[in-house]
């Protein structure tokens, strides 16, 4: 896990209760700390039967709280009353794993241990991750308590289906750390700069079928598009990610539409355009496709010198289609294109900006080894319709995405009616 700027210096109070999955919360505490958050752990007495406090202290670098009568605490708490201090200071209150017993206490507002006491003092968003046997999770009491908590705005992370410590299977397993962190990001970013907006992002290279086993594609990995989707979720947007790749994780909170060909992508973009505040076309759309898709696999003949000619035909240009729709409807309010160039970067990108009628064209030189396709980093120049050019330094695709999304937010906020 790497640094996550959204979590930088965020103060997260992590409650850990007595589930077998308590040991997995150590990884969560560690990854949150590595991401840049300040994590204070509260353990119930039962949790300490599963994991020793020193384990959490080692990964967070901070003392673990467990006693509701204790008065010693780190200097950054504003009051010697620990549960008030933790609850007042926290940017996010997380209970992971949370047992059926603690869920019941939180729903009823009981406050008879440090964790439940802090829960009722907390003024920040709350996220809980249930982990228990399937029967306990499905029990009407647990479900009713979870419904109560949801109605109060608590984020309940759905447990996963799988095998329990009991040997039985069902729904109730503690999710993997990236899922937990994805939910935490969404909860922290909920009221961010793009809250209330819908952002459509396209990602990856399209696949143009030739026969039942073959297709034409390009080197685009989808990494920049998926990173843009995450950056938009991080500032509260409703995100629709139209992607060609099943390999990359979909950010928690984004709705993913999987597509293959340019024509599939066009149809998906058209479907989601109405009401979209911004469209970011980070995908590498194939300009050509095989003119004919063979119904059966193309077989080679016995002649080793044989040549095969594939006739290609032009694909639709999605951004040109969007330009036309936008001229009629005014939506999406902001459109961003991405120019992949191997020569004459600025001239070509500027020409595309004008031709495709976008507000911003993100130009990148795909021949640089540390930028463009497949790489985890990128170096881009943002061209704007007002004629400005802004080179961004080499950075991770996550950072580049945050900078692009910030500019999209600024543009949207500057539009009339915003
Ligand atoms: N694009 C599109 N539809 C296409 C091709 C590209 O919407 N059929 C979009 C891309 O998603 C990107 C922008 O247009 O946001 C520029 O894509 P790029 O491949 O750099 O340019 P092309 O228009 O394909 O031009 P060329 O291949 O001639 O450089």
* Portion in helices: 25-40%
Shape: elongated
Report the count of strand segments: 21
Provide the number of structural domains: 2
CATH superfamily of the largest domain: CoaB-like
Rg, alpha carbons? 25 Å
Q: If classified by CATH, what would the architecture of the largest domain be?
A: 3-Layer(aba) Sandwich
For this structure, the CATH topology of the largest domain is: Rossmann fold
Q: Segments where pLDDT lies below 50 for 5+ residues?
A: none
State the major sheet: 8 strands, mixed
Average pLDDT reading:
95
Task: For the structure shown, list the relevant keywords.
418 residues, alpha/beta, Rossmann fold, 2 domains, eight-stranded mixed β-sheet, five-stranded parallel β-sheet, 23% strand, elongated, binds cytidine-5'-triphosphate
